[in-house]
Amino acid sequence: MGEETGEESKASIGKAIEAISSLISLSHSIKSFNVKWQLIRTKLQELYSGLAALQNLDSGFDPSLSSLISAILASLRDCYDLATRCVNVSYSGKLLMQSDLDVVAGKFDRHTRNLSRIYSAGILSHGFAIVVSKPNANACKEDMRFYIRDLLTRMKIGDLEMKKQALIKLNEAMEEDDRYVKAVIEISDMVNILVGFLDSEIGIQQESAKAVFFISGFASYRSVLIRSGVIGPLVRVLENGDDVGREVSARCLKKLTENSENAWSVSSHGGVSALLKICSCGEFGGELIASSCGVLRNLVGVEEIKRYMIEEDDTMTTFIKLIGSKEEIVQVNSIDLLLSVCSKDEQTLEILVRQGGIQELVSVLSDPNSLSSSKSKEIALRAIDNLCFGSAGCLNTLMSCKFLDHLLYLLRNGEISVQESALKVTSRLCSLPEEVKRIMGDVGFMPELVKFLDAKSLDVREMASVALYCLISVPRNRKKFAQDDYNISYILKLLDHEDGSNVSSDSGNTKFLISILMSLTSCNSARRKIAASGYLKNIEKLAETEGSDAKKLVKKLSKNRFRSILSGIWHS
């Protein structure tokens, strides 16, 4: 077609766009046939978006497009006539008007589908990449909905590139303003279109997965995704998508499976096998593996799914192997997954021990120069704390891995958060049988625990005090502890309420310190050192305020002092 005809066609498109805007505005003043006119407005808005995109076309027009524009203008004239008659209530009968409105709505629907076919056939130039003005930050709800409907129309009628650009614009809008997510939920068919795109080509699949992920971030909207059948397509993206699509799909499934009711749907669509494959093959990045571990952790909350996973060959081996990853995010999520799988389950615990899982957990702690981060060490300690102390087999394996040496190292040299986690595990160990406590006394835990007695955190002080009390309840440890004069003098100093440099002594730790001293008085040398110290008067003052434990301590020390006096008189 010639240049003049192209200009005439552009003018016709502008005329049609103007007529649609005018007609939509007029329709809002119609008081009758509300449902019919709402449907017509929706059709007009879809047609408006498709025509608006053509205004950027920089090449000639096809005859089929010119013919379509002429048909659209004719339908708009018919509709305007119907709208005017409805406003003036000048129609001959309701049934006839309803029929006429159905006819015109059908015409607009056909025009939109014909425009979509022209796009899909590639007749139009790709030079008119979508340019849509997003409403400003203070836009009203209707402006935002209109913008989303415009993007929806482009997704419906556009070629692959237009669909992709519309999805990109949609994701940008949802990322910048949560209100657009609500608009997407409220617009009919929008979520279904996004879910359907998950089975499209890679570029569209990626962007639609991102859109679905944005929506899944809102717990109240997840049921809309589930009703739209999102689980199956997301699993198919896991199986066949590219790395970006797989990662977003896994993150989305992780959110959706926070509700255990959705776990069965993932399993029935083959999601368990797809996730296990991602974790085992070693070809994927850390983010994808970590997110897959997160989904599996949610799934094992359903006992039947967990049993199915464990019965799969090499499942536990795969999880254990991931603990040795050099990426923190994989280490953390794989340990968290193992913790969920094995917690309160003797069968899986036995498998964990048999396949070297305890050794792998300890290896996260073992090398001071290792790549394991503080976060990895913390969660490894939490896993050991939760899994290993209720089973003799786990505990024996733990001790054979030189766990105490590694734990002691972390108490001495770890970052503060790691030290606190190590202290918690130490406290748990101190509640175990005497043999364990005797070993802990031999390798040097008691001096390290003393250092925590004056920590800023009350919880830390209490854990350290209780652990130390448990260790010195063993006679051998008590004797060893008393041999170091610093240990006793430091505890006495902490009890000295008149020492202004000591802030923590007034913060609830006194009771635990008195219990430690009371235990030490069972050792003759310790009792003599306490009685001979310059802090005895302070202890007597404490007895007036701190209750029976302090009084018992004073009484025991007084007996020792009385014996010493008698002994001196006897020998003189």
UniProtKB/TrEMBL annotation:
InterPro entries: ARM-like, ARM-type_fold, ARM_PUB, Armadillo, DUF7032. Residues 15-123 form the DUF7032 domain. It comes from Arabis nemorensis. This is Armadillo repeat-containing domain-containing protein. It comes from the Eukaryota. Keywords: Repeat. Residues 250-453 form the U-box domain. Pfam families: ARM_PUB, DUF7032. Coiled coil: none annotated. The lineage of its organism: Eukaryota, Viridiplantae, Streptophyta, Embryophyta, Tracheophyta. Signal peptide: none annotated.
